[in-house]
Write a structure and sequence with these properties.
- This protein has 186 residues and is an alpha+beta fold.
- It has helices spanning 30-39, 63-78, 89-97, 125-131, 157-166, 175-185, and strands spanning 11-18, 43-48, 53-58, 83-88, 111-116, 137-140, 144-148, 170-174.
- Helix 3 packs across helix 6 and helix 4 (125-131) runs antiparallel to helix 5 (157-166).
- The longest helix has 16 residues, at 63-78.
Length: 186
């Protein structure tokens, strides 16, 4: 995949779609998503894997407006409205740089970034600590819940209940996906 060069005056954004192309539900081919976003006026659109990771440039400066317009366009064309989290590429890259588990780079599937729709002011950290396996570690910031699960995310009781105990909507990506999206955003 080639790296796009973005116009200086436009803001570079990353959109993370939740719950698409999972278990045969909410099917949204990435080529169709790219075309849809371009038709909506976004430029230099690129995607990464089939789970709804997009990088694009836009004149729009309001991430919530972008979330609403992308969700509405998907709903109008495909008949479902996924949860979408849009953030500036700079914010995304800051989240990557702040990863408290750099040793996870050796096995990037063991570190997960749960991007928060809003700060988790009422997070129940004690309940999460109780769910944490002995090898797992986690950290919470205003934008991201970081989870290092060296024994695998599929076995993690904490990963399964993170959103409930954070009390805010999230969408998760592993370190490999986060690194690739940061690279695509340049």
């Amino acid at each position: 995949m080639r790296r796009a060069r973005y116009k200086q005056r436009m803001t570079v954004w990353i959109a993370l779609l939740r719950g698409i192309n999972v278990g045969g539900n909410n099917i949204l081919p990435m080529k169709d998503l790219r075309a849809l976003l371009e038709q909506a006026g976004l430029t230099q659109v690129s995607t990464y894997i089939q789970s709804g990771n997009c990088v694009f440039a836009a004149d729009e400066t309001d991430p919530r407006a972008l979330e609403r317009s992308i969700a509405a366009a998907i709903d109008a064309r495909f008949g479902f409205r996924p949860q979408i989290l849009v953030m500036r590429a700079k914010t995304f890259q800051q989240a990557l740089a702040a990863n408290p588990y750099p040793e996870g780079a050796e096995d990037p599937k063991t570190v997960h970034f749960f991007f928060l729709a809003e700060p988790a002011a009422g997070a129940d950290l004690a309940a999460m600590e109780d769910l944490r396996a002995g090898t797992e570690r986690f950290a919470l910031t205003d934008r991201v819940f970081y989870l290092h699960a060296p024994d695998g995310i599929g076995r993690s009781k904490l990963a399964a209940k993170v959103e409930r105990h954070l009390g805010v909507a999230t969408t998760a990506r592993n370190l490999r996906s986060v690194m690739k999206l940061a690279e695509l955003a340049g």
